[in-house]
Amino acid sequence: MHITQIETIRLGQHPQLLWVQVYTSDGLVGLGETFYVPGAVAAVIHDVAAPVLVGEDPLDIERHWHTLFHIANYYGHAGAEMRAISALDIALWDILGQATGQPIHKLLGGTVRDRIRVYNTCASDGDIDDYTAFHEQAGNLAQDLLREGITAMKIWPFDAFAASSRSSGHTTPLARHVPSDYYTVGQHITLDQLKRGLEPIEQIRQAVGDRIEIAIELHARWNLPSAIRIARALEPYGVLWLEEALTPEPVDDLVRLVEETRVPICVSERLFTRYAFRQVLERKAAHIVMPDIIWTGGISEGKKIAAMAEAYHVPIAPHDCTGPVNVFACSHLCASCPNAMIMETVRAYYRGYYAEIITPNVDIRDGYLMIPTAPGLGTRLRPEVRERPDACIQVTSRVSG
Question: Fewest C-beta atoms under 10 Å: which of 15, 157, 169, 240?
Answer without folding.
Answer: 15
